[in-house]
Amino acid sequence: MSEKDVSNEARPRMEAVIEDVKRKLATVRTGRAVVSLLDNVMVEYYGTPTPLSQMASVHVPEPQMLTVQPWDQTQLGAIEKAIRAADLGLNPSNDGKLVRIPIPALTEERRKQLAKQVHDIAEEHRTAIRNIRRDSNDRLKKMLKDKTISEDNERDGLDDIQKLTNTYIGKIDELMKTKEIEIMSV
Description:
four-stranded antiparallel β-sheet; two-stranded antiparallel ribbon; Topoisomerase I, Chain A, domain 4; single chain; 15% strand; alpha+beta; elongated; Gyrase A, domain 2
């Protein structure tokens, strides 16, 4: 195993962190209706917490409205309750056939809360990237100690890992800034 193998193993792990950041940021509410807004909503379905997407279809009929059409009509009340409990600042109503969710305009205070939430998500994922860097660096140092690589190779490996870390943290910062601009624009 060489120092290149260590950085080649770190890359897909960091890529997975970026994918997770994208998924988490997609669930943060902006001023318009998006289906991914309800991705984290879990509904109590016959005693089992079930993702909303697995028991209903979600549509965006207009920019400020979401509709949820359950496959089992008896679950309308449970879906409505779960959306309220998800703390998204939404107030669903049901008409007996589907749940309508008007998306209210964001207040300045709510925008700031959401921006803070975006910062927290980004920081959590930056930490994950740094942990991957630490693991990779530890493996390189162990390889040097076991004399399977030279000091120069270890230094090169540490530099590669640091460059990777900087690149992926930069990607997280970019995603965070984009989402923040999206939230703050009226």
